Inverse folding.
């Protein structure tokens, strides 16, 4: 089960639930168990179920290798609540399941969740109502006319420029009248441009099941594209929508730990844990996730592009989707991703949890405040954790402004102004970014490459410690000793002998002098 069986479309979370439950029921090993002097056939322990299901989820691209045992236990509890499994006495409906030897079995029938059905007329009206009072209609036929097949991801720059030249010449022959551009025209061009690019990148025949055009607010896109700091973070004109000063100070403190610029903060044992809880409470107190409820289906569908050979496609799709967010939400998301990414990579960060590592804690804490559904969905936690993990690794690219979109809109407005294009939604022929697919690799090859890449990054970290001339000698020794304890194999590869390690500090290895060897005296025989 590698997550390829669920195509993009509405209610993807429900479809994934059905796929996971079906795979679990079909693949979970069953055998005889003894409990309280009785034998039970065709059952399994809770611990065995956690082992098997956790491995299944980690090998599924929709959830990823960072699925924890605790998340798997939570999913099994939902299985018990929804009668996917039952205990050995046939009881279900509660969430009384732990990682132990309690026995469970499958019921005679495992219920699959039914998909909500939208009436075709309602789906049709949701699009028609948006455009019935407008002269310019969002015509997807323009997309099919100008976009090559196979998801439109091999659209070359040369072909785009050639097509542009032909259209300009054709329009110049037919029309030389100029027209004034209204604010409504500008907003419609932004709306249509981002929808067409998003549809092309996702490779879906229509976006109507994922997002309604009325949900796209051009003012948000325009603001997110233009009002940014030198670091690309959205700057809010209305400071009442911004994060409070104390939250910003707390986030800055942990992001730059222990070299925070704010030296007035008191420090004590457990100080960093208290600061982290304060930040977490603030973000978890929002009534709506940062990605908003209305874009839930859109982001969940992009999760199915999160495969090794489609990583670039997922980054570009998320880049466009994050532009749809209200500016305050986008700013909070940018600052949150920057903080948790720095914290998870900071080797000097003290432990913030007794059991979980820093990265796992970041994902576990903030996943629900980034993505969740308005109605409770059983796979919410796993899907959100997968997305937050990907955002942490690629937030710099995903949350930056795409220059090609700005160029496309400017060109189209220029054509509209010169009369080469009649309506804002017609003739969106600016070149799309060119993509090329890599050769698809197996899951084993991907894991091997991932390990080698991680080891290379850790080895680079070791080199940075070694070459850091501003680091005091005592501090450098301490860091190297800590590194040797955490990554002994990488350390041994860098320092195979004590001589090579001593050479770093300009010392000669102390060689113990051999013990004094007394030669035994020769005794002559008394016999002559």
């Amino acid at each position: 089960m590698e997550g390829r069986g669920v195509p993009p479309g509405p209610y993807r979370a429900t479809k994934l639930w059905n796929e996971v439950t079906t795979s679990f029921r079909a693949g979970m090993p069953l055998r005889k168990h003894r409990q309280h002097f009785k034998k039970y056939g065709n059952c399994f322990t809770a611990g065995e179920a956690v082992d098997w299901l956790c491995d299944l989820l980690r090998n599924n691209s929709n959830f990823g290798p960072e699925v924890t045992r605790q998340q798997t236990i939570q999913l099994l509890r939902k299985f018990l609540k929804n009668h996917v499994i039952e205990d050995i006495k046939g009881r279900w409906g509660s969430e009384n399941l732990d990682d132990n030897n309690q026995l469970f079995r499958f019921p005679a029938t495992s219920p699959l969740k039914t998909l909500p059905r939208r009436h075709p007329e309602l789906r049709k009206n949701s699009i028609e109502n948006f455009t019935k009072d407008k002269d310019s209609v969002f015509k997807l036929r323009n997309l099919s006319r100008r976009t090559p097949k196979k998801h439109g991801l091999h659209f070359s720059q040369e072909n785009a420029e050639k097509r542009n030249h032909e259209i300009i010449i054709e329009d110049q022959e037919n029309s030389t009248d100029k027209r004034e551009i209204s604010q409504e025209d500008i907003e419609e061009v932004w709306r249509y441009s981002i929808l067409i690019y998003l549809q092309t990148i996702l490779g879906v025949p229509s976006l109507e099941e994922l997002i309604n055009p009325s949900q796209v607010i051009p003012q948000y896109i325009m603001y997110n594209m233009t009002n940014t700091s030198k670091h690309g973070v959205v700057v809010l004109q209305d400071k009442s929508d911004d994060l409070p000063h104390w939250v910003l100070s707390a986030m800055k403190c942990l992001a730059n730990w222990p070299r925070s610029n704010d030296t007035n903060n008191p420090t004590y044992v457990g100080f960093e844990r208290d600061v982290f809880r304060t930040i977490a409470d603030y973000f978890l107190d929002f009534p709506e996730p940062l990605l908003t409820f209305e874009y839930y289906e859109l982001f969940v569908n992009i999760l199915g592009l999160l495969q090794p050979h489609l990583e670039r496609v997922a980054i570009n799709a998320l880049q466009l989707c994050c532009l749809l967010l209200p500016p305050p939400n986008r700013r909070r998301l940018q600052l949150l991703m920057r903080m948790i990414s720095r914290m998870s990579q900071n080797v000097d960060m003290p432990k913030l949890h007794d059991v979980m590592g820093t990265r796992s804690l970041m994902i576990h804490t903030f996943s629900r405040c980034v993505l969740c559904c308005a109605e409770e969905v059983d796979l919410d936690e796993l899907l959100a954790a997968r997305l937050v993990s990907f955002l942490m690794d690629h937030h710099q690219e995903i949350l930056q402004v795409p220059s090609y979109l700005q160029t496309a809109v400017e060109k189209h407005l220029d054509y509209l102004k010169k009369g080469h294009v009649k309506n804002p939604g017609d003739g969106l022929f600016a070149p799309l970014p060119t993509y090329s697919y890599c050769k698809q690799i197996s899951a084993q090859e991907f894991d091997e490459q991932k390990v080698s890449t991680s080891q290379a990054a850790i080895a680079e970290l070791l080199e940075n410690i070694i070459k850091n001339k501003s680091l005091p000698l005592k501090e450098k020794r301490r860091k190297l000793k800590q590194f040797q304890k955490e990554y002994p194999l990488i350390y041994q590869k860098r320092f195979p002998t004590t001589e090579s390690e001593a050479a770093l500090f300009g010392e000669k290895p102390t060689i113990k002098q051999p013990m004094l060897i007394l030669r035994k005296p020769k005794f002559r025989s008394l016999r002559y």
User: Anything to note?
Assistant: The two ends are 93 Å apart (CA to CA).
